Amino acid sequence: MTDRARKPATSGTTLRCRGWRQEGLLRLLENVLAVGEDPENLIVYAALGKAARDWASHDAIVAALKTIEDGETLLVQSGRPIGVLKTHPGAPVVIMANCNIVGQWAKAEVFYELEKKGLIVWGGLTAGDWQYIGSQGVIQGTYEIFMRVAARLGVTDLAGKFVLTAGLGGMGGSQPLAGRMANAAILCVEVDETRIRRRMEIGYLEHHAPDLETALRLIRAAQAEKRPISVGLLGNAADVYPEILARGIVPDVVTDQTSAHDLVYGYVPSGFSLGEVRALRTSDPERLMAASTASIVRHVRAMLGFHHAGAVVFDNGNLIRTQAQRGGVADAFDIPIFTEAFLRPLFAQAIGPFRWICLSGDPADQARIDELVLSLFPDDRSIQTWIGLARKHIPIEGLPARIAWLGHGARTELALAVNRLVANGELRAPVAFTRDHLDAGAMAHPNIMTERMKDGSDAIADWPLLNAMLMASSKADLVAVHSGGGGYAGYMTSAGVTLVADGSAEAETRLRVALTNDTALGILRYADAGYEESFAAAERAGMTARLVE
Ligand code: NAD
């Protein structure tokens, strides 16, 4: 153990900074490392997604957060603090730009070269801007997808259904628990045994099967009894998927969350041990990329085989189809993307993955906010069901946090009510609010978030840039612009925002303005693309959805 090893984020009520805005952001930085995949190397999730450029940068960020005052802003460029400038008390405490490479240069080789020189880092969506809350961060999204799959199959949930997936990393680790919450029998193939153990330790995965036979037996028995079960299997998805297909077994649902976006540091090709892969990363990355591509081709061909055999197959946001298509699988995009297939009507209303983190570290604060959510939205069946399920199934990981898919108006209403609870002492300490970058107005990603938009605006990155500028103009506490995606270059641009509800009148203004504008932009973005749901949402909110017809 080094002093850089995993340690919990600071909790309690003692301030180390000049105020809770700074203290809140510092605790979030600590928290992403506390719940991240490889904290000693500052890696949070998504293969190389980092919280800071290096340890010197990390320490300088911590020192800056401890000293800056309201009216000063810390600037971070790809995980490295580059200065503190005088702004004004309504300005963000931190602004960031992570992994943005100019268009013609935005290629994997350029990224890896710049990364090797220590000039850039991949911030993921929520690693570089300290918003990651562990595997639970995407759990409701995965659960909502599974429930929509059930609806498509004409059933109320996935009881008795077999879900096959792979990848038990930072985000993929949410799959076994989300599957169980949807009552499925879910098999997760993972090539790294330590990841299987970690998901079991934190309560996300129930079983570790020693071989495929045992895994399938466990799945079949649970299916027959319509009993939920989650089973991890050590193996390479590029071998196991074709093997299951060759046996004539067709799962009801197939997806994948290996780190296929990264052919060097993420995806592990078949036929190589983890040690061999680690060595090749520096000795022969080209060979590794070729081997990963060849494996992904087999992996995706098996997924297409399941698709043609009648399974519901979808890409869960890891760019596996894109990599397979590059490797010669011409029909890889016959597999739909989860956003378009299942979630777009929600995004079109700016309903998306909203999150809060209790900076006190006290589970009682989380429980009080759960109660608050239930009382604020009594008629929202989906939120009532979700909070019930989350309380029952989701273990606390790091600072107590919750994700809930809320939309325009609801996010602001909740945050303002929480701010009042902080003010009147009903919560022990302030609460941070944030959301995934994968949110209505905040991301352009033509192979994930914005694939096949109604008006063809898939690749236009103006929206996330507008979002970041709007958040900085709307008094948010932290605003970030990220780019990257596959090979960390050229696939997406997104924006992140964080606010700290410290119970003050200033926080009330910041929360009202920033959270309302954030979702308002989401509605405007989808209305601009012609989605009916957005016009209805705009009307409900009293907004003009289109200034120009
Ligand atoms: P991670 O790097 O923490 O974990 C990836 C896991 O895949 C690792 O445990 C690795 O051992 C395993 N793996 C790699 N190759 C494998 C193979 N051939 N067979 C079996 N297992 C293999 O990444 P993560 O944070 O879990 O993210 C996974 C992917 O999902 C990434 O591509 C990420 O960009 C994407 N993602 C999607 C969403 C979304 O909204 N749907 C959200 C976050 C991340």
Sheet with most strands: 9 strands, mixed
Find the CATH topology of the largest domain.
Answer: Rossmann fold
- CATH homologous superfamily grouping of the largest domain: Urocanase like domains
Give me the number of helical elements. 18
- Bound small molecules, which ones? nicotinamide-adenine-dinucleotide
Mean pLDDT: 97
The percent of residues in helical segments reads 40-55%
Q: First CA to last CA: what distance? A: 62 Å
Using the coordinates above, name the CATH class of the largest domain.
Alpha Beta
- Going by helix content, strand content and strand pairing, the class is alpha/beta
Stretches where pLDDT falls below 50 for ≥5 residues? none
SS elements, strand count? 17
Per CATH, which architecture of the largest domain?
A: 3-Layer(aba) Sandwich
Q: Assign an overall shape.
A: globular
Number of domains: 2
Strand percentage: 15-25%
How does this model look, in words?
The chain is α/β, with parallel strands linked by helices and about 550 residues long. It has two domains: about 135-340, Rossmann fold, CATH 3.40.50; about 350-540, Urocanase fold, CATH 3.40.1770.10. It is built from 18 helices and 17 strands. It has helices at about 20-35, 55-65, 110-115, 140-150, 175-180, 195-200, 210-225, 235-245, 275-285, 285-310, 320-325, 340-345, 365-375, 380-395, 410-425, 460-475, 505-530, 530-540, and strands at about 45, 50, 70-75, 80-85, 95-100, 160-165, 185-190, 205-210, 230-235, 255, 310-315, 350-360, 400-405, 430-435, 445, 480-485, 490-500. Strands 3, 4, 5, 12, 13, 14, 15, 16 and 17 form a nine-stranded mixed β-sheet that branches. A six-stranded parallel β-sheet has the order 8-9-7-6-10-11, with helices on both faces. A two-stranded antiparallel ribbon has the order 1-2. A hairpin with a 2-residue loop joins strand 3 and strand 4 (about 80-85). Helix 4 crosses helix 5. It is globular and about 65 Å long. It starts with 19 loop residues before the first helix and ends in an 8-residue tail after the last helix. The model has no long low-confidence stretch (mean pLDDT about 95). Nicotinamide-adenine-dinucleotide (NAD) binds near residues 166, 171, 258 and 259. Nicotinamide-adenine-dinucleotide binds near residues 37, 168, 191 and 438.
